[in-house]
Design brief:
The protein is an alpha/beta fold. The chain has helices at 45-56, 82-90, 99-112, 132-135, 141-147, 156-170, 224-232, 236-245, 248-253, 259-267, 271-295, 305-310, 312-319, 331-335, 359-372, and strands spanning 7-14, 18-26, 30-38, 62-67, 78-79, 118-122, 178-184, 188-194, 197-201, 300-304, 341-342, 351-354. The chain folds into two domains: 7-129 and 360-379, ATPase, nucleotide binding domain (Nucleotidyltransferase, domain 5), CATH 3.30.420; 172-355, Nucleotidyltransferase, domain 5. A hairpin with an 8-residue loop joins strand 11 (341-342) and strand 12 (351-354). The chain binds adenosine monophosphate (AMP). The site of adenosine monophosphate has 11 residues, from helix 10 and helix 12. Homodimer.
């Protein structure tokens, strides 16, 4: 039997204020090193990456990079070539805060490790299966054709991972399941999954759309924007800053974007914190209800990411009012325990699961799979799978 050689895989998630990394031994998936470097005043992005490359060591066999926006050019992860870099650059305007720094991370890794393969894994890829009825905005079609203005969706790697785990937990193949995946962290997105594929998702052209988030507004009537410009005397960029950084839970409560703070202060009688929590749950309900309709019912609801994995109170509030759709929580299982588990009662027709997400392992597996399926690596003849 052929055994695959062990490969050291460096997974990088480069953001503007921090860089997260994990070094895996593959295929055993043993973690050799991990960390989250926050950018200090003194340290440049390049210095941070050099530090990570030092920690990872000279014997790295491949790297995998998170790229936020792949638009409609990347329905799957790819090995990076010059052509792939050009295509990624061509859609960077869709995520100006994220893509340039993701691409810079790839360039630095290529410079440091010139003779190994580098993979790009996109937040948008999983959602490329959405039908036009999900991804088109009801604006003149020419804008879609001319500028690619449509819904793309994000957190795709996370939704893909938890879908796989849910299928294991439920003992059913993913292509036989209708799932509603709730990624509730700093950013929040809800995805309707059908036949193992994303069918609809709450985020849009950018990660600002959808449900209420920590500091992001989620959906609002677009006419609010020119009103604010006029009434507050501010420019569009400033409105967008407010919608991204001063809205959501923070904007409504006036106190915090952290659910833990809000739960505590609300219990002490702070009304706007309670209002922020209630509104947060109500917007999640709207999308979950919508996806019950889009999927014609669901077999399971998944909770993942910081809040989804760790807040039994929020999970309970969300499930209250979903009994109509066959969602019955086991309150004890919800409150107790940690990690991956079923938290619906035994007779609940729709299962409810907590599944800690693991985007890094998906990235490392994708990189290994791409390298193993690309025997031409090293000869300069990599097929571009876009
Ligand atoms: P993420 O974006 O997935 O890293 O999630 C980060 C967010 O999860 C933080 O901003 C917190 O608000 C939230 N969080 C983490 N732990 C808890 C907890 N025990 N209860 C409620 N929220 C939590």
């Amino acid at each position: 039997m052929k055994t695959n050689p062990s490969r050291k895989t460096l997974v990088l998630n480069c953001g503007s204020s921090s860089v997260k990394y994990k070094v895996f031994e593959m295929p055993s998936e043993r973690i050799l090193a991990e960390g989250n470097l926050k950018r200090g005043a003194e340290q440049s992005f390049e210095d941070m990456l050099e530090e990570i490359f030092r920690i990872a060591g000279p014997d790295v066999d491949m790297t995998a990079h998170r790229v936020v926006h792949g638009a409609d050019l990347f329905p799957a992860s790819v090995l990076v070539t010059e052509e792939v870099m050009r295509r990624m650059e061509s859609v960077s305007y869709l995520a100006p805060l994220h893509n340039p720094i993701n691409l810079e991370g790839i360039r630095l890794a290529q410079r440091h490790y010139p003779s190994i393969p580098h993979a790009a894994v996109f937040d948008t890829s999983f959602h490329q299966t959405m039908p036009p009825t999900s991804y088109l905005y009801s604006i003149p079609y020419e804008y879609y054709e001319r500028h690619k203005i449509r819904k793309y969706g994000f957190h795709g790697t996370s939704h893909r991972y938890v879908m796989g785990r849910a299928s294991e937990l439920m003992g059913m193949p993913a292509d036989k399941l209708r799932l509603i995946s709730c990624h509730i962290g700093n950013g929040v997105s809800v995805t309707a999954i059908r036949n193992g594929e994303s069918y609809d998702t709450s985020m849009g052209l950018t990660p600002l759309a959808g449900v209420t988030m920590g500091t992001r507004s989620g959906n609002i009537d677009p006419a609010v924007i020119p009103y604010l410009e006029r009434l507050e005397g501010i420019e569009t960029d400033e409105v967008l800053r407010v919608l991204n950084h001063q809205s959501g839970l923070l904007g409504i409560s006036g106190i915090s974007n952290d659910i833990r703070d809000l739960l505590k202060i609300a219990k002490e009688g702070h009304e706007r914190s309670q209002l922020a929590l209630d509104l947060f749950v109500s917007k999640l309900h709207q999308y979950i209800g919508l996806y019950f309709a889009r999927l014609n019912g669901a077999d399971g609801i998944i909770f993942t990411a910081g809040v989804g994995e760790n807040s039994p109170e929020i999970r309970e509030k969300i499930c209250q009012g979903l009994e109509f759709a066959g969602v019955y929580l086991d309150r004890e299982a919800n409150a107790a325990g940690s990690g991956e588990r079923m938290i619906s009662s035994a007779y609940s027709p729709c299962k409810v699961m907590v599944i800690p997400t693991n985007e890094e392992i998906v990235m490392a597996r994708d990189a290994v799979e791409l390298v193993e399926n690309q025997p031409a690596w090293g000869t300069g003849r990599i097929a571009i799978t876009v």
